[in-house]
Structures are given as structure tokens and as C-alpha cells.
Amino acid sequence: MPLTKGLKERAEKFTAKTPPDVTGARYAASKPIALARHLEGAAPIAETVELARKVLEAQGVPAAQQGVYFAFVEKVRKAAFSHSGATLGKIVDGLEAQFALKGADPKILAVLANLIVGG
After folding, report:
1. How far is Cα of residue 98 from the mean position of the Cα atoms in its chain?
2. Nearest Cα to 74, choosing from 12, 8, 9, 4?
3. What gap in Å lies between CA 95 and CA 85, rounded to an integer?
4. Domain count, the chain
5. Is residue 1 part of a domain?
6. Average pLDDT across the chain, whole number
7. What is the C-alpha separation between 31 and 114, in angstroms, rounded?
8. How confident is the model at residue 8, as a pLDDT?
9. pLDDT digits (tens, 9 = 90+) for 58-75
10. For position 41, what pLDDT does the model report?
11. Which domain covers residue 79, as residue numbers?
12. What percent of the chain has pLDDT over 90?
């Protein structure tokens, strides 16, 4: 079983953290809406992690060394939600340099960045 959470685990954690008896009847009435919004927001996160996992496994990166790549993917995904064009390209270039200094393989970082933002 992978150590990073998928969409199902994220939804279960969200549901467990928000019991209606603690948060009140008002939240109980809006919980279906909140859960749907959470799933919609969490889906891209889980999807990028799963895509990254497939790339890392194909590249032969050991599980114990994949964390830095998942952190990179999360930062690139976050930047891609609010930036585009040349600005996004410069942010991604900076992140690639930053994570290469942390010991990540620049070639794999480039593959992962291209997977998220295109090229």
C-alpha cells in the first residue's frame, strides 16, 4: 500500500474530521455540499500524486526516495493553479533548481513538471 494518500483516503479523513454531532446541526445540513466540494478540490491533488508515482516507478526511484519528488509535484501543481505562461515557466524552473539541490534527479523533475504543466 502506498504511503501517500489517494482520493479515497483523503475523503475518508475529511469525513472523519468533521462529525456532525461536534460541528453542529448547521454543518450537518451542509456536509453533502462540503464533501462534494472537497472531493472536487482533492481530485487533482490525488491525480498528480498517482501520475508522479507511475513515473517514479518507471524510472526506478526507490520508495524511500520518492518523497522529495512528491513535494516537487505538489508545488508545481499549486503554481499551475494560479499561474500560466512565462510566469509559470519561471516558477517551475526555480522549483526544478531548488529540488535538484535537495538531491532529486533533474531529468525526472523535468518529466514530472512536463506531466503537470505541459511543455
Report:
1. 18
2. 4
3. 16
4. 1
5. no
6. 88
7. 36
8. 85
9. 999 999 999 999 999 999
10. 86
11. 7-117
12. 55
Residue whose entry in the numeric block shows the C-alpha cell 523533475: 109
Q: Map grid coordinates 494560479 to a residue.
A: 82
- What type of residue sits at position 82? S
Cell numbers found for residue 72: 516537487
Place of cell 506531466: 115
CB of 93 closer than 8 Å to CB of 54: no
Query: Of the candidates 111, 81, 87, which has an alpha carbon nearest to the alpha carbon of residue 99?
Result: 111
Q: What is the CATH number of the domain that holds 58?
A: 1.20.58
CA distance 100 to 106: 6
Instruction: Return d(Cα 30, Cα 37) in angstroms, integer.
Output: 11
How many other β-carbons are positioned within 10 Å of the β-carbon of residue 62? 8
- Nearest to residue 75, comparing CAs of 45, 111, 53, 54? 45
Closest to 75 measured CA to CA, from 34, 104, 37, 36: 104
